[in-house]
Amino acid sequence: MIDIIILLVKIIAVLFFVGYGFTALLIPKNLRKDAIWFTPWVGTILIAVLSIIFNLAQIPVAKSAYFILACAGILFIASLIARKTLPFLTLEFLFTTLLVGFTLFFNLFPLLTKVGFPTTISLSNLDPLSYTPVGDFLINHTVLEGGTFEHYKPYLGATGDLLHAGFRWGSPILLSFFSYVFRLKSYQIYSTIITIFFTFSFPLVYILAKRLSQKHNMHILSFSFITFSLNATLLYMLYNVFYAQFIFTGIFILVVILFHAYISEEKKDLRNFNSYDLLIALALSAITTIYPEGLIFAILPLLVFGILSLLKDRNPIHGIYFLKILLLTLVINPITAGTAIGQNVKIITSSTQSSFIGWEHIPFASPLDMTGFYNLYHSKDLPVFLDIIFGFPIAVIWLLGIINLRKKLFILSLLLAWIPFYVSLRWIFPNFFSFHRAITYTLFLYSALFSIGMCFLFSLIKNKMIKFTIIVLFLFLSFRSAQRTLYQLYWHAQVVDKSLISLTQLNKKKDIIEPFFTSDVYLGEDNLWKRLWREYFLMDRDIVTLQNLVTEKDNVANIRLVLAEKNYLEREGKKLIYTNKIWENDYYQLGTITPMKRIDDLP
User: Rounded to an integer, what distance in angstroms lies between the CA atom of residue 483 and that of residue 474?
Assistant: First the structure.
């Protein structure tokens, strides 16, 4: 357990270190009070953007990491010399930090108490098997090399898919960076770092809510925590380890905060390029490589706001802001900007098609589910009339939040840009999974609006006991809902356990050089999680599994060895009988079996 806590502290420390100097030197004055919570996100942005620029120049992470850390150190020292330190010794910071700490340990509870060492866990989703091989690959390779076919290397399918089909280069390269800095493998970092990204999104939601309302009180902090950090709808995605989505969400919230502050400035010289333009453009550039599918959710509202401002005030200034930011985003990395645009076109096209996506059916979220007060996945699906009855007061609170906003037009622009996606994916081209993801991308705004609306209602209530009772009631509903999802992860998680990790022993055996089959070739597919992680841990061996059997049929006639799990030698009447073992540990064995099937008889 202590290894997980140490890793947690080290990742957070590096994120703050990389982002601190740049943030302290460039953050606009009216954002400086809260900017300490921006630093881990600025650090994330800088690592992703700079690593990809170096990588495209064929400089892998093993070399670029030194430059990034050196620059971070120089900027940190420069901020101290310039006396541009970021304030944080406040009571507000202390309370926020306590809630951040609770969120971290609440969501890492299964990893800390049941597993006990740094590894990857998931409710069932196989996303880590896309990101971790690529994370390890990019330490010493570049995106230009990904997808190169090699015989007996089934795991390379992940690098080809992510680097040449999905174009999410920045998200695995973050794993590469931390893996290299800490000399770990990506699977050891994955679950811890995704929890960090989710957790450090919460302070941004709070900052957004108080800036939108210009109210600074504990009620906004409380309800931001209740409806975001304890939101079971988000926790389901977190425990299904949608890694890139959570990095995107935090950066997205930061973009909204920065742009809102930008349009709130009273200065008249903002037609020239300034720190707002650079910070927002860097964030958007990070999105183009970390989660290109999310770019449209971030950019379209800025465009809508520029158009509405022009129509309302006959003033093109906000459109000029948008064009400056867009131009800088293209200049920072035109390659990732281009791939992101192409990816968005492809996603929009595919989302209009209803097809099997390999995911259990998720009910369409109601306001009650969106605020996390009811568990969308692990509680009984409520009838529509109850969704309406319980959802109506939440919608009213959202409306009160909108009424009490500063710069209402900007928030309305966000909603106007997102609503067509909701409507399209719910009623025109029904796709429950795409609809669900669109909702979870944008839940941060509904959390902020709910917090602002409740703050307004509390201003009308003078009795402190009534306020306390309402907070406790909402806290109970959210915590109960969140605990249900955490329970599923605790008892039903898929884990990269010690048996799988033990295959690294075989990976290091230099005297075994010939290729071998894995048992699934003979026994059939029983556990996709295990089979794919076996491929990951055996990436330095020549192996044939169900994944690459078809492409290797002409090359396996002379393979005589089979790797099998000792406790899994028989399935559905098929049994592996070993005549000779050349390697074994507590969990696996490698050797020859009898009778060996002819290659034409294999599945």
Answer: 14
Distance, in Å, from the CA atom of 324 to the CA atom of 321, rounded to the nearest integer, reads: 5
The phi and psi torsions of 37 (rounded to 5 degrees) equal: -80, -10
Contacts of residues 10-16 at CB distance under 8 Å and 24 or more positions apart, as own/partner, are 10/182, 11/178, 11/189, 11/192, 11/193, 11/196, 12/40, 12/196, 14/43, 14/178, 14/181, 15/39, 15/40, 15/43, 15/44, 15/196, 15/200, 16/40, 16/43
Helix, strand, coil content of the chain in percent (nearest 5): 65, 5, 30
Whole-prediction pTM value? 0.95
Residue labelled with tokens 């380890």: 241
Q: Which are the contacts of 437, defined by CB distance < 8 A and separation ≥ 6?
A: 237, 245
Under a CB-based contact definition with an 8 Å cutoff, are residues 289 and 169 in contact?
yes
**Cα–Cα dist 189/172, whole Å:** 11
Q: Residue 87 in 3-state DSSP?
A: coil
Question: Which structure tokens are listed for 90?
Answer: 């406040």
Supply the DSSP string of 451-462, one letter for each residue. Answer: HHHHHHHHHH--
Q: Give the rounded percent of residues in the chain with a pLDDT score beyond 70.
A: 96
Which of 544, 545, 549, 539 is closest to 159 using CA atoms? 539
- Say what the pLDDT of residue 358 is: 63
Q: Which residue's entry shows tokens 């992101």?
A: 340
- Residue 448 CA to residue 202 CA, distance in Å, equals 10
- 495: β partners: 121
Instruction: Please tell me the distance from the alpha carbon of residue 252 to that of residue 258, in angstroms, as a whole number.
Output: 10
Label residue 584 exposed, middle or buried (CB < 10 Å: 0-12, 13-18, 19+): middle
The C-alpha atoms of residue 591 and residue 578 are separated, in whole angstroms, by: 7
First to last CA, the chain: 42
Pick out the chain residues at pLDDT < 70: 147, 268-269, 350-359, 596-603
Do the Cβ atoms of 87 and 173 come closer than 8 Å? Answer: no
Q: In this predicted structure, what is the pLDDT of residue 352?
A: 55
> Domain-by-domain residue ranges, the chain?
2-351, 498-601
What confidence score (pLDDT) does residue 353 get? 57
* CA 433 to mean position of chain CA atoms: 16
Write the CA distances from 202 to 195, 281, 295, 324, 443, integer angstroms: 12, 22, 21, 29, 11
d(CA 491, CA 172): 28
Helical packing angle, 408-423 and 384-403, nearest 10°: 160
Residues 211, 260 contacting (CB under 8 angstroms) = yes
Round to whole Å and give the CA distance between 186 and 280.
29
Q: Using CA atoms, how far apart are residues 177 and 69, in angstroms rounded to an integer? A: 10
| Kind of pairing between the strands at 543-544 and 570-571 | unpaired
